[in-house]
Amino acid sequence: MQPQEPPFRGRDPAPQPAAGRRPGGLITLQNILPPEPEICPEEALYFHAGGGAGYCRSQGLFQLPGGGSLSFNSYFNLFDLGAWSRACRLPPLFAEITGQGRAALRLVLTRPGGGTETVLRTEAELDPAAPLRMEIPPLEEGLLHLEAAAPEGAAALHGARFAIAGMPQDLPRLAVSITTFRREAEVRRTVARLNAFLDSYAFGAHIHVQVVDNGQSAGIEPSRHTTPYLNRNLGGAGGFARGLLEAERGGFSHCLFMDDDAAFHMENILRAYMLLALARDPRTALAGALITTRRTSMMWENGAWFDGACRALFNGTDLRAPDAVQAMLFAAQQARPATFYGGWWF
Length: 346
Known about the structure:
By secondary structure, this protein is an alpha+beta fold. The protein has 2 domains: 27-164, Jelly Rolls, CATH 2.60.120.380; 174-278, Rossmann fold. Helices cover 18% and strands 30% of the residues. The protein contains 5 helices and 18 strands. A hairpin with a 5-residue loop joins strand 7 (93-110) and strand 8 (116-126). The radius of gyration is 21 Å and the shape is globular. Mean pLDDT is 92; it is low at 1-19.
């Protein structure tokens, strides 16, 4: 197998599928993530439940028995309004919920420094064929989360999202560049997941996967969404430098570096792309946070700083605890050290 030459250029001419843009024209900024135990086994990082509520994986929905409740005041599902507002020009924001049965719904804002406020509240009969849409009042600071309860009989949540009604005309082109060396099975799984996601994502034509194969052994096939590059083993630095060079040659506006053994939600790519698309400054860069497979409930690094050594920020934060998560997110928005560093933890 040889890498494709010339590198991928231009946009995918195929019609854009519907994921990310659903009936009614809304565009997803952030989905409510259901648990993915293969990525993270800690249910409390996705949701908190009472009264027998929970997630049914076989049916792919959240179950709410009568009297049951769900809160998405969680690390993976909080909407960090302050971070989005500072980085982006946000159009009017909507919350959209799909489900079945009668449910009481609340959208709660937690303000910096403490204090909560219910910004939206409704009780409605949910219909899986007709998502419930609520416009969120203008807000600039704080953390938003959804709460749901079944006040009478059983109900179910099929999905929920934070969304906007329009996008800029000039969209970024994002290269996702993976450097790999002799981790054939891991990188093939990652590429297969990325290809499946991009096939169904409304803006998948603007995102392309590059695999820089330092071991020349991964056997990644060229595809609509993926280009492999056989490379000498020049280490991680050489592999990522090759990835950046190919992204520049391909005319991409942004390059997201990714390790070959990273376990991550595809939602990471959606959220990253939307932030770059709406960014006030086209030079905006972003970095991921890292949770290790050994301590799946604890933050390992959410940014870092240097004083001769690399000092991880927020190491040890218990991500199962809503108060700890909120404190970390608010602190992360404060002034950063002059030697702040952000890794590409994707």
